[in-house]
Specification:
By secondary structure, the chain is mainly alpha-helical. The protein has 23 helices and two strands. It has a two-stranded antiparallel sheet with strand order 1-2. Helix 3 packs across helix 14 and helix 5 runs parallel beside helix 10.
Length: 611
């Protein structure tokens, strides 16, 4: 623990600002609990009545990903290893374009409420349940990390009682999610995103001013060797290079923005498909802004402390606590600003957690409970959804306790979890969407193999404690940096299995995704590939066909199948909550499903969602 003489304390103003943030979040939850349809139906509670505009949806998409982990983790990463991580911004381009034009149209036109319903339409019930359980596992672990990060950091610097903070965060969040449903979650996200950016900006501006201006910051950062050039080293075991971040990062983004229930639920809550796609586009500039703010903060922090290592003052705590120390140090004597930053941290955490609770409640409800109790009344289903959101809240508090037993940097742990579990899930969606021959046995086997390999590599890297590169030295003058760089180079490369375990964690998503596709296709061909006419209409996206546009039609049909024509099979029928089977008539027509991406000369097809 930190030496009490170094602890920076909150003033009354800080406490007030912090309390106002929590109160405002609760207020938004209460407002939506008591207004509109009062969260009486599962459609309203879990999908905000499919009535949201693209701006709140896009801000909510950022907030649910830009958690406290990113706000503390990214500056700590830049402070320790230099700006190489910034290149992940390149991955955002394709990482958002592909979901906007491939995943969103498929999901939106199938009128799903859980992304994993897709797996049942395309494969079978078993694949859907497997997918759902994987998602629940991933999210609960990640939530523990999200609650624990800000609580730990606050505790290290201000001496707040750690578990008191964890409980407060978890409970406030559980309350407004349980009361106000997805609408409350999205609008609190909007409010929290604004607070988040304001807090980071305040720290950067004050930090630059106290370090002696922009040119001084630049000089120190440059001399301290923190500005990284383009590292084109193709070695996949290097922790961060342009390839691991720019290419491996695309798969990470796809698993988050393409098939993660928390994000898919946002798209599906949009008014029309066009709004959903637009919200995906609008995420891009804000994500770049968030990344830039975090990176600049790391650089300012380095310029402020270069040559001094304060980790001794922070006891055994990690570099992540250093970020909070820097913030309290910068904003000391400016009443209200430390409170604003802590509020910004917590709002980041709250937004991530609340979206997770809501999406966990959705998948449990839609994928695990409703299929077994088709006769359940709407009121009971809504009550049950709320109870689920609440119980997941408490489960995540338990996970927070487990998180503090892990030793890695926060950012790395988070990205590892996304890669290890999100990668295989992305793989099974790609398998179904792009390969018409894949059958449900292949889907199950692929997902199982993907998860097995993921945990083998992931656990192997934790056991052999392989984090890749050493941190850069914390000095400003160049000679020491050069000596340190020379000693750094002479580390002996690992061999055999250890080398396999030292795969950069940024490649986890891609590696696991391809494992699933490969195993899935092999097993599908061994057990008899699926016939083209058996694929449910609307679940297949002719990716290979689009990529091989230069081939003549008949050859294209041979190698990649085609979108099934509407005459062959009845559209999937959906059960209403009272157990009656009704044909789906509010969905798009079949020819709309067939022309997947509207061509440039066609106007955008927009469907209002019938409620």
């Amino acid at each position: 623990m930190m030496d009490p003489s170094n602890q920076k304390h909150f003033t009354v103003v800080d406490y007030v600002i912090f309390a106002v943030l929590l109160a405002a979040s609760l207020g938004i939850g209460l407002y939506y609990a008591l207004s509109g349809g009062r969260q009486r139906t599962t459609q309203e509670f879990l999908l905000a009545d499919r009535n949201m505009h693209c701006l709140p949806v896009s801000l909510s998409l950022i907030a649910s990903f830009q958690s406290a982990v990113a706000i503390i983790g990214v500056p700590a990463e830049i402070y320790t290893h230099g700006t190489q991580y910034w290149f992940i911004g390149c991955a955002y381009i394709l990482g958002l374009l592909i979901p906007a034009h491939v995943f969103i149209p498929v999901f939106y036109r199938l009128q799903l409420s859980s992304a994993y319903q897709y797996l049942e339409l395309r494969f079978s019930k078993a694949v859907r349940i497997f997918g759902t359980l994987t998602f629940i596992f991933q999210t609960v672990i990640y939530m523990g990390l999200c609650i624990y990060t800000p609580a730990f950091a606050l505790n290290a610097v201000t001496g707040f009682e750690l578990w008191g903070i964890v409980l407060a965060t978890g409970l406030v969040c559980t309350l407004y999610t349980t009361m106000g449903g997805l609408k409350a979650v999205i609008w609190t996200d909007v409010f929290q995103t604004v607070v988040m950016f304001a807090g980071q900006l305040a720290v950067i501006v004050v930090g630059i001013q106290q370090t002696g201006g922009v040119s001084e910051v630049w000089r120190k950062v440059w001399e301290g060797n923190r500005i990284s050039g383009l590292d084109l080293n193709p070695d996949p075991t290097e922790r961060h290079t342009f390839w691991t971040l720019g290419v491996g990062g695309i798969f990470l983004m796809l698993s988050l923005y393409g098939v993660n229930q928390a994000q898919v639920q946002r798209y599906l809550s949009a008014r029309t498909e066009k709004e959903a796609v637009r919200s995906c586009y609008m995420v891009f500039p804000s994500l770049q802004l968030a990344l830039a703010l975090s990176c600049v903060m790391g650089l300012v922090m380095f310029a402020r402390y270069c040559g001094e290592d304060h980790s001794d003052k922070l006891g055994a705590s990690t570099r992540d606590a250093m970020v909070i120390y820097f913030v309290m140090d910068m904003l000391q004597g400016l009443p209200g600003l430390p409170g604003l930053f802590v509020a910004c941290l917590f709002s980041a955490a709250l937004s991530t957690i609340s979206s997770a609770f809501n999406s966990l409640a959705t998948v449990t409800m839609e994928d695990l409970i409703k299929p077994h109790f088709p006769a359940m009344t709407e009121t009971r289903a809504t009550l049950l959804s709320k109870a689920l959101a609440m119980s997941y809240g408490l489960l995540c508090l338990a996970m927070a306790y487990l998180t503090h037993l892990m030793g890695d940097s926060v950012l790395q742990v988070a990205l590892k979890i996304f890669g290890m579990v999100g990668g295989p899930v992305l793989g099974v969606f790609c398998l179904g969407m792009f390969f018409p021959w894949a059958n449900s046995t292949g889907g199950l086997a692929g997902l199982g193999a993907g998860l097995a390999v993921a945990f083998w590599v992931g656990v192997g890297s934790i056991v052999t404690r392989h984090s890749g590169t050493r941190p850069l030295p914390l000095y400003c003058n160049t000679t020491t940096v050069i000596q340190m760089a020379v000693t750094n180079v002479t580390l002996s490369p690992s061999s055999g299995l250890r080398r396999f375990y030292s795969l950069s964690y940024m490649w986890y998503s891609a590696f696991n995704c391809f494992t699933v596709i490969l195993v899935g296709l092999i097993i599908s061909f061994l057990t008899g590939p699926m016939k083209e006419e058996d694929v449910t209409p609307g679940t297949f996206y002719p990716l290979l066909g689009k990529m091989l546009f230069f081939l003549p039609e008949h050859k294209k049909k041979l190698c990649c199948g085609e979108t099934p024509s509407p005459q062959r099979r009845q559209p999937p029928q959906h059960k209403e909550s009272n157990g009656l089977v009704v044909p789906q008539d509010n969905g798009p027509s079949h020819d709309e499903m067939e022309s997947f991406l509207p061509d440039t000369h066609k106007p955008f097809v927009e469907h209002e969602t019938a409620v």
